[in-house]
Write a structure and sequence with these properties.
4 strands, alpha/beta, 4-stranded parallel beta sheet, globular
């Protein structure tokens, strides 16, 4: 693959129930942690794509959490660009390119 894979933090990589504050990030979701580690081992670029990144004070908390769970050094952003080739997120629905049709029968 060329480009980068975006992975949401809250509800995708980390458990999320309610907003507690920028310093609180839930427990890791093992299946996603393992998936990200596999991508990294295969040479893929992975970025944490989270709304939290709009608050620059949140970045050190996210970086510390990533470091704690073996994902140190990943770029943290809330901005997508033309290099993003995939987005893994608990709130997204896939739309078939140029059609407006969903892949999973969501309306």
């Amino acid at each position: 693959m060329n480009g980068w894979i975006g992975v949401d933090l809250d509800g995708t990589l980390a458990h999320y129930n309610d907003w507690v504050g920028i310093e609180h990030i839930g427990d890791p979701i093992p299946k996603m942690i393992d998936r990200v580690k596999k991508w990294l081992a295969n040479g893929e670029e992975v970025r944490i794509f989270t709304a939290r990144a709009q608050n620059k004070d949140a970045i050190p908390h996210i970086a510390a959490w990533l470091n704690k769970y073996g994902l140190a050094g990943l770029k943290i952003t809330n901005v997508k660009d033309y290099g993003m080739i995939e987005l893994w997120d608990d709130r997204s629905f896939r739309v078939i390119t140029n059609t407006g049709e969903t892949c999973c029968n969501h309306e």
